[in-house]
Amino acid sequence: MKITLIHGQSHKGSTYHVARILAEKIDGEITEIVLPRDFDQMCVGCAQCIKKDEKLCPHYEKLAPITEAIDAADLLIFESPVYVYHVTSAMKALLEHYGWRWIMHRPEESMFKKQMVCIATAAGGGQKNTCQDMADSAAYWGVAKTYKYGIAVRAMKWEDVTAKTKDKIERDMDALASKIKANQGRVKPPLKTRIFFPVMSMVLKKRPDSVDAKYWKEKGWLDGKRPWK
Ligand SMILES: Cc1cc2nc3c(=O)[nH]c(=O)nc-3n(C[C@H](O)[C@H](O)[C@H](O)COP(=O)(O)O)c2cc1C
């Protein structure tokens, strides 16, 4: 299984370790992207990616290797420590650069067959929101199956996490890795996606000259073809 692991921070703390433990248990081919080291650009808000062409983004070339790694993966693992109840700014900046890939615009076909895990660690709270920040993009990218794993590690660094919590993480990651392996190649997007997709198809048929409608037309999605089939 090809795994692309995106770290929302550049240090090897608790969140890094939880994500690595999971990736290693799945025993696939792992590609790692570390933020902001590998991508440190902020969205400039020109909206050219959404309105015209993603290649017009001033950061397109810098983003391209990450996009390739995402597209090549069977499993995406996105992780972020909780920073003031949400993902790190580096993770948020990356997600913003994929607004054009949301279902209502030009979703990537392979997403509809992928699995994704969103991982967050907090000292005490905010892990739910933080997982959701990443899961929102997963849902609107069309990812077939998304798992969320948040844990309050009660520490500011991995070395201070208790043995009991580390044991729990090991057990939780064993269970999650088994589920992911069992689901590989068998996932289908949730009902919400399968309902939203034809609704978007109807909306885009009414705007045949838009870049989004042209993309959907090329894919056959305006004529009943579906990316998960
Ligand atoms: C800028 C900053 C903001 C934080 N905000 C929160 C927070 O909102 N809630 C919380 O429980 N912990 C918060 N923390 C603590 C971290 O989320 C927590 O220690 C986490 O496990 C760190 O993960 P890491 O070791 O991967 O960096 C914050 C830490 C930093 C540096």
UniProtKB/TrEMBL annotation:
Pfam families registered for this protein in UniProt: FMN_red (PF03358)
InterPro entries the UniProt entry points to: Flavoprotein-like_sf (IPR029039), FMN-dep_NADH:Q_OxRdtase_AzoR1 (IPR050104), FMN_Rdtase-like_dom (IPR005025)
Origin: domain of life: Bacteria
Coiled coil regions in record: none
Name assigned to this protein: NAD(P)H-dependent oxidoreductase
Organism, as annotated: Roseburia lenta
Residue intervals of the NADPH-dependent FMN reductase-like domain: 1-140
